[in-house]
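Researcher: Good morning. I'm working through a list of sequences from a screen, and I'd like to move beyond sequence-only analysis. For each chain I'm collecting a predicted structure so we can compare shapes side by side. This is the next one on the list. No need for commentary yet; just the structure.
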Amino acid sequence: MSGRQSAVTLYYHLLSQPSRALKIFMDVNKIKYIPKEVQLAQGEHLQPEFEAINPFKKVPVISHNNFILTESVAILRYLCREFDVADHWYPKDTLQQAKVDEFLEWQHIELRAPLAMYFRTKFLMPMVTGKPAKQESVDRMYKLMVIGCDKVENIWLKDKPYLCGNSISLADILGACEIEQPRMAGYDPAEGRPKIKEWMDRIKKDLDPHYADAHAYLNAVAKKNAARSSQVVSKL
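Model: Good morning. Structure tokens for this chain:
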């Protein structure tokens, strides 16, 4: 495992779901890294200095021995190969590994896309632009988000404690961080979905304190928005 000889440089921001997943994974597995928080609100990811690292102008990114990777799933797989981590994260057994890969490929479109777009449409863009969200767009993203969350509840977690079997894997870290995201926009996927609720509680226990640390900002935003919504309702 040559990776243990040098630290990884991690470019990230905790508003980013895969950034949180990657940071949690590295903290849990004690992978030495140099943290480089990219200030998204200040547009640091759009500057030439960062574009030279990642031409896609997104986080997360890693640099390791002058080798750069810009996509979170590829990064996680690379770290599992390069560093000494427990086999359950990304099993060497081809059948078990294929099940993890199955979720990693599925989640891009079926889970990440609708949850991220709901968050972006209802919360992020109104915050950035100062303009209210178009309700038609919010409703469309909401429907897709519900479909994705229901599939996690009724298919992926139908008969097992983790997304891909009886042990936690890369799928669970990525999936949990995606499930957390719309809470900042006032929607909690765990509400009314007991299997997701039990799974999320299990993940938090497995990964704490690193999970809680990575989600401190998200939890603060979600709490603030929930309080604001309660005040609005009380005035109606």
